[in-house]
Design a protein that fits this description.
The protein has eleven helices and ten strands. By secondary structure, it is α+β, with helices and mostly antiparallel strands.
Length: 308
């Protein structure tokens, strides 16, 4: 296991990626540098303009195929000024590497996970705009996902085990009884009964790329990364970003913007807080909080869901 991700199913290194790119897409070839070992994918910079997105787990390989199919469609809905790493070329299994992979544009910037929550506040409205813009009704053949967009009740057994295990208290010294009350409140909220809507599936701070504003004063949202969890279902799943990404002030701005743009009620926000708890506790349970910025994202979510 890397410090900030589950154990990989396959070995990846710069030599292998360079050989795959040279063999299958030589026009993109260039010096290769590992820049991130994510939850499901490793990201390698290829030359100055490109990135290779390489599944490191079997689950990531399945999710990448959804991303290759659907991100070009969804990205056309993004607001002006916010980009997505739409694949420009796809690779096939070869040289002992078993998965399909992608070449995407390389974007400079800093992930929101590397920026303190108070400094993320200026992107709250922009992220709300993104989620509303992409969150239209999804077609019948939109990809399914086992743990995003589904009714919260399907996550109850997992959450009961996690909340009762003692692992969260050992990791973050949190009030598990209070977290259980948040979960119960989310389960009690009326479920989503509308048509399934497109979801990014994982708009946490590690997947939000920031760049400095033109005047140098603070950050702007430059890109939304990692669309492997793209699916359709309950839009409250993506609204979990209110607790995953922001502090109280940023969350208020995010919520106000969402409510201006799209009908949203108390039940939606209760479920969204439940989703933030489910996702944040999963991060803490699997990788802890000391290994890197994603662990801190999980701990932040558990802290924030107890504040409102």
């Amino acid at each position: 296991m890397t410090a900030d991700a589950p154990e990989a199913d396959v070995h990846l290194d710069t030599s292998l990626v360079a050989r795959l790119v040279a063999a299958q897409h030589p026009s993109f070839a260039g010096p290769v540098e590992l820049v991130a070992n994510g939850w499901d994918n490793a990201i390698f910079r290829v030359g100055d303009q490109w990135a290779a997105r390489m599944p490191r787990r079997e689950l990531g390989a399945r999710l990448l195929r959804s991303e290759q199919r659907w991100l070009p469609v969804i990205a056309s809905s993004l607001p002006d000024g916010v980009r997505a790493p739409v694949p420009v070329a796809t690779g096939r299994p070869a040289l002992g590497y078993p998965y399909a992979w992608s070449i995407t544009p390389w974007f400079d910037g800093e992930t929101a996970a590397s920026v303190v929550p108070a400094d993320r506040r200026p992107i709250a409205e922009a992220l709300a705009d993104v989620l509303v813009a992409i969150g239209g009704p999804a077609p019948a053949d939109a990809p399914d996902h086992p743990s995003r967009g589904v009714p919260l009740a399907t996550r109850d057994e997992m959450m009961a085990e996690r909340l009762g295990s003692g692992r969260l208290e050992r990791a973050v010294a949190t009030d598990v009884a209070a977290l259980a009350a948040v979960w119960a409140d989310a389960l009690a909220a009326p479920p989503w009964t509308g048509a399934p809507r497109w979801l990014h599936g994982d708009p946490h701070p590690g997947n939000l790329l920031l760049e400095r504003r033109a005047d140098g004063d603070g950050w702007r949202l430059a890109a939304v990364l990692d669309w492997g969890d793209v699916t359709a279902g309950d839009p409250a799943t993506d609204l979990a970003a209110a607790w995953m990404a922001f502090d109280t002030e940023g969350r208020a701005a995010f919520r106000h913007r969402i409510e201006r743009l799209r009908p949203t009620d108390a039940a939606d926000w209760a479920r969204a807080r439940g989703w933030a708890l489910a996702i944040g506790s999963s991060i803490v349970d699997i990788i802890g909080v000391d290994g890197g910025p994603i662990g801190r994202v999980g701990a932040h979510a558990l802290e924030q869901v107890l504040l409102d």
